[in-house]
Amino acid sequence: MLGEPYRPLDPDDDRGVSAGDRIKKGFKAACTRAKISDFHPHDCRHTWATWHYQEHRDLNMLMHLGGWSSLSMVLRYAHVNVSHAAPSINAMPSIGPAPTSKVQPRPKARAKRGTAA
Q1: With contact defined as beta carbons under 8 Å apart, do 79 and 50 qualify?
Q2: Rounded to whole angstroms, how far apart are CA atoms 49 and 77?
């Protein structure tokens, strides 16, 4: 169920491992086979939250889907790359004097003989 913790241990299961432990063990084995180091199941949660936010820009829905209880927690997960924000940043009015242009103006075209300038 969405936002619920893993089911409790099954008293009839003599292995005594939680679903979280089983996921971690399988994930670690997969990373070892793929030769990926320092990557954990929880890292996928950060990636998912970042991708979801970049696609939908809806922190409230992200909070709901991720099961977080506050926007401050959502913001810890919804990392945003700056490159996608460049058009918005570049559209902002500049602060202070406009930069001076180093491009020389093109000379005006000369009028041909017998035509008005």
Answers
A1: yes
A2: 6
